Every structure is written in structure tokens, then in C-alpha cells.
């Protein structure tokens, strides 16, 4: 059986409490059944959906993703994946709010180009200002720049989501020190978003003190997505426990596990 989350170690986003620190996407699965089974295995409570690519009610004659991922069970996090300018990102969030009966929690991403899928930071900042002023609770995808992360927090974003590596790359965290600096200076939840490849990458993010990790491709592109979802769940839980336990100091030279003082020979 999959271990249950530690209910004494929750965190909150926009005033709502969550126990699973693994957030998952819904793209790239072979069908809705696999999507539902993988997300079930992940233990995630927050599920992000690309409004421009998935049907959540805008196409009445197509299968609705919310039929297998009901909002009564999951916090639905509409995102602006595929948006490359402020106007399209803002319009997508407003569409999601209409489709989800006034739902204000969104994930903002404004991309810079199709090859790297790196964020366009300047347009991300502008879009965040517009959305916050319009009453949205904005979780924002950005680069791993501590200065930009702090600016997005000060704008009023409810969570900042620095990338670990390019979206879908599976490279893991490329700049641990930047992520650590962002965490140390934050007053809102910090969640690594993009670039995780396997469970050890998720554990590293949690060991750095991140509040959570959002991933999609690392699960959906695995040979066995349902099994990988379970592995990611355990990696998140192990990394969080290690962070709370406080690791031993790293040392340059050996230190015997058993002290040699007072030995009989």
C-alpha cells in the first residue's frame, strides 16, 4: 500500500491547507483512465490543467477532464501553458474562472520561446500584476532568479514556482544554490516546477526546503506512469522527512561510525 501523507506536516496556499506536497499535471497521458490512475497513485490534492489544451467545459461535445478529476475531490489549478504574451495569459485565466464558477486560483506561465520554454520574465511580471489586481490568486512559474522570485512575491503572488530545469527535460535541479536562496528569502510557498525527472530529483527539492514540487512529464512519460507516480509520492515524503530531520554536516574527511576512544585494544 502507498504510505499516507503526514497530516501533522501540512502547508497552505491562498489560505487552504494541503497535506500532499506533490502537485501534478494532466498532459501527455495515453488516455483519461491512465491520467486518473496515475494521479490517484500520486496522492496529489492539487491538479493543474492547461486550459488551452484540455477540455474543462469549453467544448461540450468532447470528453471533459473534470469527469475523471472532479473538483469535489481535487483542487483544480488552471494554467496558462502555451501563452506567450500578457494578453493571452490574462484571457486564459479569465476563461478558466468562468468555466469553474468563479475559481480564482491559477498557475501563471508566460513563455519566452518554443524551443526552451523558458519564462518571459518581464511579461510574467506584468501579467501577474494584472491578475492580482483582478482578484486572482496567482501561483507563478518563473526562472530560478532569487531577485525575480522576491519581486513576484511582493506583487502579491500566493506561491512562486521556480524551474529546476527546462520544462520536460528531466534534468533535475540544475542550480541548487539558487533554489535554496529563493527558499531562504521567501514568505510564500516555494514549489519547484519543471525539469524533475525521477524520484530522487523530487527528494532533492524537498531537502532544500521547498514546500512542494509540481511535475507532469516525469510521470506521464515514464514507461509505467502509475508506478512512477507512486515513486514520486514516496520521494517527496522522504525528502520532506529528511529536511525536517536535519541532515548531518558534510565533512571532507572520514569520521568513524563508532568512536575509537575507550576501546580495549
Give a written overview of the molecule:
By secondary structure, the chain is an alpha/beta fold. About 35% of the residues lie in helices and about 15% in strands. It has helices at about 30-40, 85-100, 120-135, 145-155, 175-185, 200-205, 215-220, 225-245, and strands at about 10-15, 15-20, 20-25, 45-50, 75-80, 105-110, 135-140, 160, 190-195, 210-215. The strands form three sheets. Strands 5-4-3-10-9 form a five-stranded parallel sheet. Strands 6-7-8 form a three-stranded parallel sheet. The longest helix has 21 residues, at about 225-245. The N and C termini lie far apart (about 50 Å). The model has no long low-confidence stretch (mean pLDDT about 95). Belongs to the ThiG family. Homotetramer. Forms heterodimers with either ThiH or ThiS. Catalyzes the rearrangement of 1-deoxy-D-xylulose 5-phosphate (DXP) to produce the thiazole phosphate moiety of thiamine. Sulfur is provided by the thiocarboxylate moiety of the carrier protein ThiS. In vitro, sulfur can be provided by H(2)S.
Helices and strands in order:
Blueprint lengths: L10 E3 L2 E3 L3 E4 L6 H11 L3 E5 L24 E5 L6 H14 L5 E4 L12 H13 L3 E6 L3 H10 L3 E4 L13 H9 L6 E3 L5 H9 L4 E4 L1 H4 L4 H21 L20
Parallel strand pairs: 3-4, 3-10, 4-5, 6-7, 7-8, 9-10
Antiparallel strand pairs: 1-2
Amino acid at each position: 500500500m502507498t504510505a499516507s501523507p503526514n497530516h501533522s506536516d501540512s502547508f497552505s496556499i491562498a489560505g487552504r491547507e494541503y497535506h500532499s506536497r506533490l502537485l501534478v499535471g494532466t498532459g501527455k497521458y495515453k488516455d483519461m483512465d491512465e491520467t486518473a490512475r496515475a494521479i490517484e497513485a500520486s496522492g496529489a490534492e492539487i491538479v493543474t490543467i492547461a486550459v488551452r489544451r484540455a477540455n474543462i467545459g469549453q467544448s461540450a461535445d468532447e470528453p471533459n477532464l473534470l469527469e475523471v478529476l472532479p473538483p469535489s475531490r481535487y483542487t483544480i489549478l488552471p494554467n496558462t501553458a502555451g501563452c506567450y504574451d500578457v494578453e493571452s495569459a490574462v484571457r486564459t485565466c479569465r476563461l478558466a474562472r468562468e468555466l469553474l464558477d468563479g475559481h480564482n486560483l491559477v498557475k501563471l506561465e508566460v513563455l519566452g520561446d518554443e524551443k526552451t520554454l523558458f519564462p518571459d520574465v518581464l511579461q510574467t511580471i506584468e501579467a501577474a500584476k494584472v491578475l492580482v489586481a483582478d482578484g486572482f490568486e496567482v501561483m507563478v512559474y518563473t526562472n530560478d532568479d532569487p531577485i525575480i522570485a522576491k519581486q513576484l512575491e511582493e506583487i502579491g503572488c500566493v506561491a512562486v514556482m521556480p524551474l529546476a530545469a527546462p520544462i520536460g527535460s528531466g534534468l533535475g535541479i540544475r542550480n541548487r544554490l539558487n533554489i535554496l536562496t529563493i527558499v531562504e528569502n521567501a514568505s510564500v510557498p516555494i514549489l519547484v516546477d519543471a525539469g524533475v525527472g525521477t524520484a530522487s530529483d523530487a527528494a532533492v527539492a524537498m531537502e532544500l526546503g521547498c514546500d512542494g514540487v509540481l511535475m507532469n512529464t516525469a510521470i506521464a512519460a515514464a514507461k509505467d506512469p502509475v508506478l512512477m507516480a507512486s515513486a514520486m509520492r514516496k520521494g517527496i515524503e522522504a525528502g520532506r522527512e529528511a529536511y525536517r530531520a536535519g541532515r548531518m554536516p558534510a565533512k571532507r574527511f572520514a569520521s568513524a561510525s563508532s568512536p575509537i576512544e575507550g576501546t580495549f585494544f
